Amino acid sequence: MNTAKNVTILVLLFLVLVLARAVIRLENYRYATVIGMCGDYNIKDPFQLVQRDKCLAHAQTRTNPLWHLYYALINH
């Protein structure tokens, strides 16, 4: 009985971490868009739109990923 409980806790903890990582990534992307990072691309050109997306995905907008989690969960 105890083993099933421990496995359930581990699975749920894993899911929380995976979802937190996704929230951090999305908040970083959103904030990079808001502050105008990677704004040199013409979004009407499909090739440049893909390049802009890659640029935004790799942009670092805050000093710590936990700030992204904080702003995503508390300020929105």
Description:
- This protein has helices at 2-34, 46-58, 65-74.
- The protein has one domain.
- The chain has 3 helices and no strands.
- Helices cover 74% and strands 0% of the residues.
- The chain is elongated, with a radius of gyration of 17 Å.
- With 76 residues, it is an all-alpha fold.
- The termini are far apart.
- Helix 1 (2-34) crosses helix 3.
- The mean pLDDT is 93.
Précis, in short:
Helix content is 74%, strand content 0%. The protein contains 3 helices and no strands.
Distance between the termini: 40 Å
Cα-based radius of gyration, to the nearest Å = 17 Å
| Residues in β-strands, percent | under 5%
Q: Identify the overall geometry.
A: elongated
Q: How many distinct helices?
A: 3
List low-pLDDT spans: none
Mean pLDDT over all positions: 93
The figure for the number of domains is 1
Largest sheet, in brief, is: none
Q: Percent helix among the residues? A: over 70%
How many distinct beta strands? Answer: 0
Secondary-structure-based class equals mainly alpha
Order of helices and strands: HHH
**Assembly context of the chains:** single chain
